[in-house]
Amino acid sequence: MQISELPTWLTNDYMQSQLRAFHKDTQLNVLKLWSNAATGKGENYVGIVTRIHVELEAAATGGAVAQRTYLLKEACPKDAPQAGMFAEYDVYAREMDMYEHVLPRMTQLLREAGIGDKLHADAVCIDREHGIMLLEDLTLLEYRNADRVKQLDLAHTHITLQMLAKYHASAMVLKQRHPELLARRFQTSFFTRGPKGYAVLFTCLFRGLIRYVQTQPKLKARYHAKLTRLLDNLMEYGARAFDVTDDDFQTLTHGDCWTTNIMFQYDGKGQPTTVVPIDFQFSTRTSPILDLHYFFSTSLQDNVLARETELVQYYFYALKRTLCQFNYKGKLPSLLEFQLQFERRKFLCVVIGLVFQPLMIYTGDESPDFWKLYQDTAEAISFQDSVYESDRAQNIVAQLLPIFDAKGLLDEQ
């Protein structure tokens, strides 16, 4: 942990200025700072997250020397292979807008409605000149991630659906009262027509799925030809799931809601009591159902996912309760209409469930560098194939393919 790991401009004086403003303490003094990586390799592809350790004197400490930590989020280096892809999707400016303008206003709306839930980490500063965000370290509040490999049980799932309901409801009210805040930067998803980066990525990963299916005689006989034909329309069918009209039920979604992007507090018995979402690079204006599909397809244990219809109902009533607290007057579908919309947008699960989920629970020995997800070199293909080597990944494919086929999702749409 060397201070040289920090950007050269991130000095004691810089931190002192930012912390004085954030903590409203003009006498706060930064005595020392140093850093270490906040995420392991393969845990955060979009940027660099560094934990900043600060030794300081402040009014809150009675003038005593104390140590605090904060999270520094930076864009990935400009020479990184994926830098162009993330620039194409405007992920950094989007997340800055979320932390600086959107999330604080959504929190304010929740407070006005009598809902005191924490919706996001506080932003110490948003520095667009240097392209960084300095955020509250949620681990100091005893938030932590659940196990991405074990995935989430029913208690974790329920509390996350409650959080999503409050997130979506407050965003719907925000759009009514402050539409200018969502007028730009929130139209692009993984599947948006036009940008090519994630089209290349999903195509490469889907080819990896097809290669695995080809090695399994029973799966090959039933699904190989269908999956091969599906490849050409993969992104268009995904884009249709995100399409909305003025008549559709829509809001601001999280866009990347899975186990690693949500953090929990726990009681003494190990049960989750509070949940906070993190990482808002792909927040998108579309149907809230897309967050449900993404969350269900990446993060739930099998016995929980088996209760999918019941979980949609659970979320729907949580959303209605929250909107009632806001005295929301907008259009709201019936539960039947919502369930039908859920089924209509289910193609997203084909891609996310069959290629992202195995990747998200990957525990293999190969290095999960981001470039290996979208290149077709021998090394990249070796990693893509290794994603399906585990029993868990193979069981996922074996369970999901018959379900998707029975629903007609593997056929021409």
Walkthrough of the structure:
By secondary structure, the protein is an alpha+beta fold. The protein folds into two domains: 3-75, no CATH class; 98-122 and 148-406. It has 14 helices and nine strands. The chain has helices at residues 12-23, 83-88, 91-112, 154-177, 197-214, 217-230, 234-242, 289-299, 302-305, 308-325, 335-344, 347-360, 378-386, 391-406, and strands at residues 29-37, 47-57, 65-75, 123-127, 132-136, 251-253, 262-266, 272-277, 284-286. A five-stranded antiparallel beta sheet has the order 1-2-3-5-4. Strands 6-9 form a two-stranded antiparallel sheet. It has a two-stranded antiparallel sheet with strand order 7-8.
Short description:
The chain has 413 residues and is α+β, with helices and mostly antiparallel strands.
Derived from helix and strand composition plus strand pairing, the structural class reads alpha+beta
Largest sheet: 5 strands, antiparallel
Overall tally of structural domains: 2
> How do the strands line up in the largest sheet?
1-2-3-5-4
Count of DSSP-assigned helices: 14
Radius of gyration: 22 Å
Name the helicity range.
40-55%
Describe the protein's topology.
Blueprint (H helix, E strand, L loop, with lengths): L11 H12 L5 E9 L9 E11 L7 E11 L7 H6 L2 H22 L10 E5 L4 E5 L17 H24 L19 H18 L2 H14 L3 H9 L8 E3 L8 E5 L5 E6 L6 E3 L2 H11 L2 H4 L2 H18 L9 H10 L2 H14 L17 H9 L4 H16 L7
Antiparallel strand pairs: 1-2, 2-3, 3-5, 4-5, 6-9, 7-8
